[in-house]
Design brief:
Strand order of the largest sheet: 1-2-3-10-5-8
Strand content: 25-35%
Structural class: alpha+beta
Largest sheet: 6 strands, antiparallel
Distance between the termini: 54 Å
Radius of gyration: 17 Å
Shape: globular
Helix content: 25-40%
Length: 224
């Protein structure tokens, strides 16, 4: 089992190195455009479902109207930090923006159905593991954080409660929640709520891989 884990992380490490080179630009471009189009559709649909204008979402997320418009048209490669702000403004988890809205509802998620996404700023790679569109309050995401990488989410409290648990599979990750920093090694698990600034950092020379379990607690309808 340990050898399988090492093999998996080595493969993803090679993927990270390759996707940063010019020779892979042609083959990686189609995948990047595809997932950017998926994000664009999700942001548009979620905003429409909430009856929000571009100006309304801009005010709620602290992201400019022009940037949101570019993202909704698939003409931008937004960073994870930017997408987290938009997700916060929409009242959803970041993982929700990567769901394939056109996928059939199925309780089973297959390996070949998952599309990895690479953050253009930090270089981290994430994949939604949970079945897309299946009605569940739980989402599972796998993240590979490159050596020396750091990503800091600036958003605080949301209109809905979102709980996360970070389970480290390989390597070491420093997770800062508010003013408290937790150093997590393989098989450590951290429970947290998305109600203050959060940062993930890999201070080592090897990639770190962790799984994020997300649960959204919707507000209860008022009694009549």
């Amino acid at each position: 089992m340990q050898e399988m884990r090492r093999s998996a992380i080595d493969v993803v490490s090679i993927l990270l190195d390759n996707t940063s080179t010019m020779k892979d630009a042609a083959t990686g471009g189609a995948a990047a455009n595809g997932i950017n189009a998926r994000i664009a559709g999700r942001v548009r649909a979620l905003r429409a479902d909430r009856g929000m204008t571009l100006d309304g979402l801009a005010a709620k997320s602290d992201v400019s109207r022009s940037m949101i418009s570019l993202i909704e048209r698939g003409e931008s490669s937004p960073t994870a930090v930017l997408l987290e702000k938009i997700a916060s403004g929409l009242g959803v988890s970041l993982a929700t923006l990567f769901d394939d809205a056109e996928a059939p509802v199925d309780p089973v998620s297959r390996h070949e159905d998952r599309t990895p996404w690479r953050d253009p700023q930090s270089g981290y790679v994430r994949r939604n593991i949970s079945p897309a569109n299946f009605p569940s309050p739980i989402q599972i995401v796998e993240v590979l954080l490159p050596a020396g990488a750091r990503v800091a989410y600036e958003t605080g409290a949301r209109d809905v409660r979102i709980h996360q648990q970070i389970w480290v599979q390989e390597g070491t990750v420093e997770v800062t929640v508010g003013k408290v920093t937790h150093r997590l090694s393989a098989d450590d698990c951290l429970a947290m709520q998305l109600n203050e600034m959060t940062a993930f950092r890999n201070c080592t020379r090897r990639p770190a891989r962790y799984v994020v379990f997300i649960a959204t607690e919707r507000p209860r309808a008022p009694r009549r």
